[in-house]
Design goal:
By secondary structure, this protein is an alpha/beta fold. It has 17 helices and 10 strands. The longest helix is centred in the last third of the chain and has 23 residues, at about 350-370. The chain is globular, with a radius of gyration of 20 Å. Its EC number is 3.5.4.4.
């Protein structure tokens, strides 16, 4: 079944939690055009709607490497303090308008130094923009809380430097650390010293793994580097052998390997991104995306957008696609939302308040109305 407007509207009205959203992957096309005109960066087109379509088409290549090339244009317009703050503010407002009540936005400060900013100046500019976005969203009646994940590029050699940067700004909005970029050939353990430093200072870590590389990457992230969550992790399904039918508990008949068993039984949350995974070749379609069978097998899954601009998507759209094409219902949406909130790097009292005061009452009302 194709996506329907009514499904999106229904889900957009519900509170949601976003754990995996790249700041440089969610810019407004009109903003890109405006900043590029001011700084002299050449774009494929200067028409905002044509540019929106270009990003989506360029990302529909089926490979992660080609997908990542689209970021040359977004990063090019995020090189000064004012532009970084503006992009951050708009990202928060866009998430809030989509019904996201808590989000974690990630970005790599080392990619924003081309016009002379220091790493610390980059972080300060982004945090100022985030707080402004929260303020404007609250004034608009769509309150949202946002934390940032400072990311190191896995192919570079700045992991420790970026880890120290994250720690310096941990009380100003930075809530966690990540590594991102080309996965194959650049294992998480290349940055082991940085992860050890962060663990020693009780700082949360999530790691991109199991997207463009397989089980060894996930195991390295978990067992060697101590990740609390896995960014993507879709290829954990390579350690799951599906059988026919269901078992006595109604679960799909399946044999799990040791790593898949570890991930499921310990509740390691996977930051799954259905549309993005289809674009990069990690899944064939949203209908057949492993997220549904992983959900049914008892894995702890969250639903995410990855890069809203490149995928032409929103969190509401991702959930709507799962409802319309993969057979999800509102109870599944609520369960994934609570799972994401529980795995977030938001302090426990804040998580508890969001769950009890905002999320559960909204879904209880929606489920009652649909009964």
């Amino acid at each position: 079944m194709s996506e329907t407007t009514s499904t999106i509207d229904r889900i957009r009205a519900l509170p949601k939690v976003s754990l995996h959203d790249h700041l440089d992957g969610g810019l407004r096309p009109a903003t890109i055009v405006e900043i590029a005109a001011a700084n002299g960066h050449r774009l494929p087109t200067t028409d905002p709607e044509e540019l929106r379509a270009w990003f989506r088409d360029a990302a529909d290549s089926g490979t992660l490497v080609r997908y990542l090339e689209t970021f040359d244009h977004t990063i090019a317009v995020m090189q000064d303090r004012e532009s970084l703050a503006r992009v951050a503010t708009e990202a928060v407002l866009d998430l809030a308008a989509d019904g996201v009540v808590y989000g974690e936005l990630r970005y790599a400060p080392e990619q924003h130094l081309q016009q002379g900013l220091t790493l610390d100046e980059v972080v300060v500019a982004v945090e100022e923009g985030m707080r402004r976005g929260e303020q404007l969203a609250a004034e608009a009646g769509t309150p949202i809380k946002v934390g940032t994940l400072v990311t190191a590029m896995r192919h570079a050699d700045r992991g420790m430097e970026i880890a120290e940067l994250a720690l310096r700004h941990r009380d100003a909005g930075v809530v966690g650390f990540d590594i991102a970029g080309a996965e194959l050939g650049f294992p998480p353990s290349n940055h082991l010293a940085a992860f050890d430093r962060l663990h020693g200072d009780d700082f949360p870590v999530t790691i991109h793994a199991g997207e463009a590389d397989g089980l060894a990457s996930i195991a390295d992230a978990l067992h060697t580097c101590g990740a609390e969550r896995i960014g993507h992790g879709v290829r954990i399904v390579e350690d799951v052998q599906l059988g026919e039918g269901t078992d006595a508990h109604g679960l799909p008949n399946a044999t799990l390997g040791r790593l898949a068993t570890w991930v499921r039984d310990r509740g390691i949350v996977l930051e799954l991104c259905p549309s993005s995974n289809v674009q990069t070749g990690a899944a064939t379609s949203v209908a057949d995306h492993p997220i549904t069978v992983l959900k049914d097998l008892g894995f702890s899954i969250s639903v995410n957008t990855d890069n809203r601009l490149m995928s032409g998507t929103s969190l509401s759209r991702e959930f709507a696609l799962l409802v319309d094409e993969a057979g999800w219902d509102l109870a599944d949406v609520e369960r994934a939302t609570i799972t994401a909130l529980s795995a977030s790097f938001l302090p426990f009292p804040d998580r508890l308040a969001l769950a009890s005061d905002v999320i559960r009452p909204a879904y209880a009302s929606a489920l009652s109305a649909s009964a």
